[in-house]
Automatic annotation (TrEMBL):
Cellular component annotations (GO), alphabetically ordered: cytoplasm
Family membership: Belongs to the peptidase M20A family.
Name under which the protein is recorded: Peptidase M20 domain-containing protein 2
Keyword Hydrolase: yes
A Pfam family this chain is assigned to: M20_dimer
Keyword Hydrolase on entry: yes
Natural source organism: Pectinatus cerevisiiphilus
Gene Ontology MF: a single term: para-aminobenzoyl-glutamate hydrolase activity
Chain ranges of the Peptidase M20 dimerisation domain: 203-300
Amino acid sequence: MTKDELKAIVCAAIDKRQKDITALGDNIYTEPELGYKEHKTSAKVQAVFDKLGINYTTGWGITGVKGHLKGRTSKRTVAMLGELDALVCRNHPDADEETGAMHCCGHNVQIANLAAIAMAFKDTNAMQYLDGDLVLFAVPAEECIEIDFRNTLRQKGKIKYLGGKEEIIAQGGFDDIDASLQMHVNPTKKTNGEIQVAGSNNGFIAKIIEYKGKAAHAAFSPSEGINALNAAMLGIMAVNALRETFKESDCVRFHSIINSGGDLVNVVPDYVQMESYVRAASVDALKESNTKVNRALKAGADAIGAKCIIKDLPGYLPLFNNKGMSSLLRNNSTKLFAPADVYDGTHSAGSTDMGDVSHLMPVVHAWVGCVHGALHSAQYDLFDRNTAYSKSPKAMAMTIIDLLYDNAAELETILAENTPIMTKKTYLEYMESIK
Ligand SMILES: [Zn+2]
């Protein structure tokens, strides 16, 4: 069996399984679950693996599922990742009425892609032609939301880190993996889909900010109070005054929400809690801008004699796509997409915990254009199901075959040319340094 013949039969198997693949994607869409709570979605992945006779382990980052397919020889291991979680988007017509959860970042499509590869590789016995193992990893909690809830999980010792992939790295779930790939849906104006095969993303540091003042009657005796809400507003304004000092090349972003801004309108608020991210394009820029932001936030409290307590939490690291893996994905994508619809992309200000994985091993994180409306918005609409459920898993499957075919020669070259940015040890040291 030549490599091209193997790719052709695996792609044909994805065609044959279209009904099963789309049904799973749609089913997960109707039951969205937030990070570290994806128990039903996790069970759906396990059911797919059970049906196909794929061995797996569970409990990775609470809900993660790690499936294993053995190659002809077990030289190297490649992982295909799919994210389990949804996020909150109450205004979306398809949002869960109770929780507001909604798959408006399309992670259900990722799990369907993961299942497509599981089905196609099992249906065709593709692994007997490959010199390496394939891990099919359903991973939790990519959306870094409900920071207060996750911090509580941390305090209870249930998790160490906010992001699912970070947690799994700490648990050792990536120790036996040499390279990883995943797809993610993306908005597009094209009618036949498009795919971004390279580019980079910002990382971020998350924070919980508390302002403590002194309560007093807002009309009789405001002079006796210390207004924590004013302190918070001054803190935000102080960060805004910093913006001109951020270098364009560092792509710094600061955004915050107020979780708690006072209880009663006629009482001077004595407590405000905020959540925020500081994002930047490199670890150095992250640390530098974070120091400035914290100084500015504290200045808001100093101005009026309030207290400001900042809890920094390790967010995600910047994402760097591996050139060799991008190149394989680009070549495979040109067989499925029009040449103008396969592109490299530039730097994006958004973040993903795939960035953390990219500091440890070669990765490729594809952005597959198949939705209308912005990600995370009420307008999100998966309109191009052929690109999402057929072209995308085929591009990923062919890239996996490239990596592991012929003594995993392509992967060996990629690994020989790649110097990991961090070891697991230096990674964990960095994570512990953010506090
Ligand atoms: Zn996402």
